[in-house]
Design brief:
This protein is of the alpha+beta class. About 25% of the residues lie in helices and about 25% in strands. The protein has eight helices and 16 strands. The chain is globular, with a radius of gyration of 18 Å.
Length: about 300
């Protein structure tokens, strides 16, 4: 459902492989989705911690200008990503995330914002465009990356969905927004649910859990559908999955954001075979992917990049 790739720093040559072990700083390593690539319309990737120049708690591919990393190191990291994407930083557009479900329609006037130009918008957790050559950039360190490709209307979207965004049905909001802006129909979309914190690692309070219990109500068939597809997380015990499980401590619960976002996309009309799911936990793999919980907040940011090919 996803692929791990390496790009040699000197040449940009991509080496496809299955493992995740890599000497940090030697090669850039990132995740891609074959289902999105097969549309023939996009370049995309979700970064790992490997292949950049940042140091210490930001090592090494941090893409945040706001967490204390050296600006020149972050700019170099963007330059390296740009080499792989075929998109210079001045053609990238960043979100300004505050756990909303607000989505911005990005145009050529937005190129470079949040990367080499100041942002003139705020409270934006989703980006969408139908203009080729603009790389949409959204950020993560336990929350869920959501990617959307409409091959019929040649449009794309990326979104950040933590627990607040998921309760707000960010995935559904993106499907609706792309429909209004581009004429996108949900059954035409190819989507991906990226790496985030897994249910075993994500403990939440009762007030948060209650909101997801409401979301789960009446979803037995969708949860069974995912379980029978064989695409649910590796090592699962085979029982019908639940978005919320009772935690070890009284008043604590374990939350499954992957499952919740799958259900939201299905309820929005996205076809099951067009939803790719990543089963890599950021918290379990905090040496490979930035995790807010595992690091106690001392970390950089991963990023998702999605761009339409320039038309020839």
């Amino acid at each position: 459902m996803y692929r791990i790739e390496r790009a040699r720093r000197a040449t940009g040559e991509v080496i496809r492989q299955n493992g995740v072990q890599l000497e940090s700083g030697e090669e850039l390593e990132y995740l891609t989705y074959p289902s999105l690539e097969k549309t023939g319309l996009v370049r995309h990737l979700i970064t790992t911690r490997l292949g950049g120049v940042s140091k210490g708690e930001f090592a090494s591919m941090s893409l945040s200008f706001t967490r204390g990393d050296r600006e020149e190191d972050v700019q170099e990291n963007y330059r390296r990503i740009g080499q792989v994407l075929g998109c210079p930083p001045e053609n990238m557009t960043a979100s300004q995330q505050t756990h909303t479900t607000n989505i911005r329609l990005v145009t050529s006037d937005d190129k470079g914002k949040g990367i080499i130009r100041p942002l003139d918008y705020q409270d934006i957790d989703g980006l969408m465009t139908d203009e080729p050559g603009i790389a949409l950039v959204t950020y993560y360190a336990d929350c869920v990356p959501l990617l959307f490709v409409d091959p019929i209307h040649r449009a794309i979207g990326t979104a950040h969905s933590g627990w607040r965004g998921t309760v707000g049905r960010m995935g559904q909001c993106m499907v609706k927004s792309m429909g209004e802006a581009f004429g996108t129909r949900p059954e035409e979309l190819y989507t991906a649910i990226g790496p985030s914190i897994c249910q075993d690692c994500y403990e939440v309070s009762e007030d948060v859990a209650e909101r997801f219990i409401d979301l789960e109500e009446g979803t037995e068939e969708l949860r069974k559908e995912l379980l029978l597809s064989g695409r649910y997380r590796i090592g699962y015990d085979g029982n019908l999955p639940k978005i919320v499980e009772q935690g070890i401590q009284p008043g604590k619960y374990q939350l499954d954001l992957w499952l919740a976002n799958y259900i939201i996309l299905r309820q929005a009309g996205v076809l099951p075979e067009r939803i790719a799911i990543t089963d890599i936990c950021t918290c379990h793999n905090s040496d490979y992917l930035f995790s807010h919980r595992a690091s106690g907040g001392k970390r950089g940011n991963l990023a998702a990049f999605l761009m339409l090919f320039e038309q020839k």
